[in-house]
Amino acid sequence: MNDSSIHDRLENIVKRIQSAAIASGRDARSVKLVTVSKTRSADEVRAAASAGALIFGENYVKEASEKIALLQDLNRPFHLIGHLQSNKAKTAVRLFDLIHSVDSENLARELDKQAQKIGKIQGILIQVNVGMEESKSGIDEAGLEALVRAIHTLENIRVLGLMTIPPFDLDPEAARPYFRKLRLAADRIRYLDLPNIRMDELSMGMTGDFETAIEEGATLVRIGTAIFGERS
């Protein structure tokens, strides 16, 4: 895809995000676009950055490490939106401004340890498996409060909110109950008023359903295909 196509697609998505936010009675600035750049080349990322993309999302630590090394001059934040294994935590804290996919106490503690080594406060989101799908990562809703209570004293991570990937359906309305579940879960955690735990961010919504996610409170939407086109 050429640079002009990326520019036009990105501009269209930004307009749709703003329209969905305003239609929901929200400030358009309250929703941030994470441009999903997994499997995309460094040149494609540069084109998206030139077109105005401010945050990029990667799924795999190794791929992101190689790509970010080529893009340091962009000075853009990268988020990890894919599953993270504990043995990749050391690299992850060096690469990513925000990690969306923390789903266990062990992983949170390893991120805290590795962040402490480099004097960083690592922002994280807790991934919640609202659809109870065996094929997806994430803690179930029943275990969310216990996880938050177990990690809120860790000094080098900050829980900034929650993330989810709902069960796939071609109808975006089918995802609405899952987005709503995540928002209500965040409300419950916010009510606990625990140190180091904030519920400022809800990472939910992708190319096919981001407008529905925004209506249900998303603050971070993860969109790749609608900007870069279908992967070859």
Overview of this protein structure:
There is one protein chain. With 232 residues, the chain is of the alpha/beta class. It has helices at 3-23, 42-50, 61-70, 89-95, 105-117, 141-151, 176-192, 210-215, 225-228; strands at 32-36, 55-58, 78-80, 98-102, 122-127, 157-163, 197-203, 220-223. The chain has one domain (3-228): TIM Barrel (Alpha-Beta Barrel), CATH 3.20.20.10. Helices cover 42% and strands 18% of the residues. Strand 5, helix 6 (141-151) and strand 6 form a beta-alpha-beta unit. Helix 1 crosses helix 2 (42-50) and helix 4 (89-95) packs across helix 5. The chain is globular.
Distance between the termini: 11 Å
CATH class: Alpha Beta
Individual helix count = 9
Instruction: Give start-end ranges of low-pLDDT stretches.
Output: none
**Major sheet characteristics:** 8 strands, parallel
Mean pLDDT: 95
Structural class: alpha/beta
Give a count of the beta strands, DSSP E runs of length 2 or more: 8
The assembly state of the depicted protein chains is single chain
* CATH level-four homologous superfamily name: Alanine racemase
In angstroms, what is the radius of gyration? 17 Å
Task: Tell me the series of helices and strands, N- to C-terminal.
Answer: HEHEHEHEHEHEHEHEH
Summarize the entry for a quick read:
By secondary structure, this protein is of the alpha/beta class.
Write the topology of this structure.
Layout: H1 3-23, E1 32-36, H2 42-50, E2 55-58, H3 61-70, E3 78-80, H4 89-95, E4 98-102, H5 105-117, E5 122-127, H6 141-151, E6 157-163, H7 176-192, E7 197-203, H8 210-215, E8 220-223, H9 225-228
Parallel strand pairs: 1-2, 1-8, 2-3, 3-4, 4-5, 5-6, 6-7
Helix pairs in contact: 1-2, 4-5
